[in-house]
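Task 17 of the worksheet. Students: predict the tertiary structure of the chain below and write it out as structure tokens. Keep your answer in the requested format; marks are given for formatting as well as content.
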Amino acid sequence: MTTDGTAPGLCDGGTVNLVWTITDLCDTITFDADFILIPPVTPDYTAAADTTAYSCSYANQGELDAAFSAWRSGVENNIGFSNGCDPQITLTTDGTAPGLCDGGTVNLVWTITDLCDTITFDADFIVNVPPAVDISCPTDPNIPACTSQTDIEAAYNAWIAGFTFSGGCSSTDNVDEIPALPADAYDNGADLTFTYVVTDLCDTLSCTAIFTVEPDTVAPTFTAQPYQNCVDPLHWAVYDELNPTPVAGHVDPNLNKSPVDYRTMYAGDTFLDLTDLADNCCATDELTINWRIDFADTPDPITGAPVSHPSISGTGQPSTYGSDILLWGDGVTFNTVYHTITYWVEDCHENVSEEVEETITIRPRPRAGKIDY
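Model answer:
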């Protein structure tokens, strides 16, 4: 044998050609032959298809579990093999049905093996849930005594319309149990409380709302906001050893600067004004705004000791104070300074709101000074 070889791979197949040589005294003869191995064909099969279920189609978790089991068994029963060398199917990654009310996806993996091949395929069992029940109750209206019966009834009808829900499976509610509006609500007021309940396949949700008609004991309402800013931008600074000016508000008395360390609220500025002024009976021009600014101490520019600043107060919006308001900052230790402004509002019936305190935050500018080299 002049050309030898080895058998083809069992699963690869192929042809091996061997050559033999015959020699004698007078002749040299060669001949060859092929060893041919035909490999098996990869198995054909029917892969599983993803299945999507809808939770509202099942009465309970047991029914969903049964549907999942039937789908899983059907994959193996309908595999439909052809070709291959005695292929077998095994469920290699199992799972359980998603929760009826949670929904989700379960991925199962099957493995097909035969003499030469290992094939995996997977499929998803998907459970879609409806949008979760969304229950809504109206805000609690507080109807002032000066409101007409017609307006009270309109507010009551709007209140009823505010009990709503969406989503869920075959959801039901108790909206027909809302208490009726008393006929004498205009004269004697009303206090109606209703707990709204919605039930579906997976949830029972509730919320409570109150409809009130009351005498005029209600104080005005308003919105106050905290304020924060830096001290006024530095316009100029001069270092003068011959003319120290410690009153300039800087720890270095030789440095004169303008402006000194405060934030100026110019007359007419509205950033400390109240918004959303309202009263149940009185017009906004009949409301009296009261305010007071209490200043925090700031360091003395020479000694560093705390320096107090007198509070200021006024009536009407702060923007109408009549002069500029200086909101002190710290140009000595360059720390943030926190002042407070307190508001209270009185209506035309002498109902006074609670005091509301907001913070006025004044940040320092970067420190400016002379550096000797």
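Marker's comment: Residues 246-250 have pLDDT under 50 and may be disordered. The helical segments are 61-77, 149-161, 185-188.
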